[in-house]
From TrEMBL:
Keywords: Membrane, Transmembrane, Transmembrane helix. The keyword Transmembrane applies. It is found in: Membrane. GO terms for cellular component: membrane. The chain crosses the membrane at residues 129-149, 155-177. The keyword Transcription does not apply. This is DoxX family protein. It is a multi-pass membrane protein. It comes from the Bacteria. InterPro entries: DoxX (IPR032808). It holds the Pfam family DoxX.
Length: 220
């Protein structure tokens, strides 16, 4: 006797959605809710990147003042600031109450530290691009994803600071990638690019076919 457990293939898009989750993460009527968060997180990343790029502080409490240590890039000391940070992280890997795990310390020592100059440019311009992407709402979900990646690396390196807050905010922006950038560049970019990679075939609230492009509309 044969028993059929599933008569039809399971479809992920058929899974029920919580009304609140649909409203927050898929409905453009609440896109304004994500704007302050997006602008703040973008400002934090952009100011951090510009400080490393220029050697001047861009924080609101001390605008355009020389930053300790100067610029990270385009000088004779490129890589020194990151090396100092990495060596500090490696010191946190020892002792009874180590704040840096052994596997991550090995990664820093064997891979990142020898290439400190290259990673200095990656970190500096990565922070600038993430900040610009979030502020202007261009590829918001992708920018938040890269921001989350950098936050996790700072946390793994034993640096707490504002990183847990930024990481939580980044996760929320990633979940709301369909609407978080609606009041920004994504309102134009996503309808142009999603059909090219086949995502227009996936049922998404907040989108409705209009002419030959996808446009923001679904209010259901």
């Amino acid at each position: 006797m044969k028993v059929s457990i599933l008569k039809k293939p399971y479809r992920v898009d058929a899974a029920p959605q919580l009304p609140l989750a649909r409203l927050l993460f898929r409905d453009v009527r609440l896109s304004w809710l994500w704007l302050p968060l997006r602008l703040y997180i973008g400002y934090v990343w952009l100011s951090a990147g510009l400080t490393k790029l220029t050697g001047y502080s861009f924080s609101l409490d001390a605008p355009v003042k020389p930053a300790p240590g100067g610029a990270w890039v385009f000088n004779a000391h490129t890589g020194d600031a990151l090396r100092h940070f990495l060596l500090g992280a490696l010191q946190k890997a020892g002792g009874e109450h180590a704040s840096v795990q052994g596997w991550y310390a090995a990664l820093l020592h064997g891979f990142v530290l020898p290439q400190a100059e290259i990673f200095t440019y990656l970190v500096t311009f990565g922070e600038v691009l993430v900040g610009l992407g979030l502020i202007f709402g261009c590829f918001t979900g992708l920018a938040a994803l890269f921001g989350l990646f950098m936050n996790l690396n700072y946390l793994f390196a034993g640096t707490i600071s504002i990183n847990p807050t930024l990481a939580i905010a980044a996760v929320l922006l990633i979940l709301a990638w369909r609407v978080a950038g609606y009041l920004g560049g994504d309102r134009i970019l996503l309808p142009l690019l999603l059909p090219r990679i086949g995502l227009d075939k996936i049922p998404q609230s907040g989108w409705r076919a209009r002419e030959h492009k996808l446009a923001w509309a679904d209010r259901s």
